[in-house]
Amino acid sequence: MQLRKRTWMYIALGAMGMMLTACGKGGADLSCATDNDCLESELCHPDKKVCVQLCTTNVDCPASAKTCAAMNDNGQKICQCLSQQCTNP
Known about the structure:
- 25% of the residues lie in helices and 16% in strands.
- The protein has one helix at 2-23, and strands at residues 42-44, 51-53, 67-70, 77-80.
- The protein has a two-stranded antiparallel ribbon. A two-stranded antiparallel sheet has the order 3-4.
- It has one helix and four strands; from the N terminus they run αββββ.
């Protein structure tokens, strides 16, 4: 009987360990060092060091960054939140 209790305890601890490992801290990690760390439709923001979505119009942007605007003089446009009304996903 003692062996069965110990076996079930090990199974429960193993399952809990796997669940905690799989959950992580939640959310996606958008940090980057270069453009190669981002998706093809994104680039690495030079100041904030996070992947940002490239766009041509506001329709291309998610609700968390509703405005498609030029990042700098090179003509590349990224999705940005320019007002206090933007929501976080």
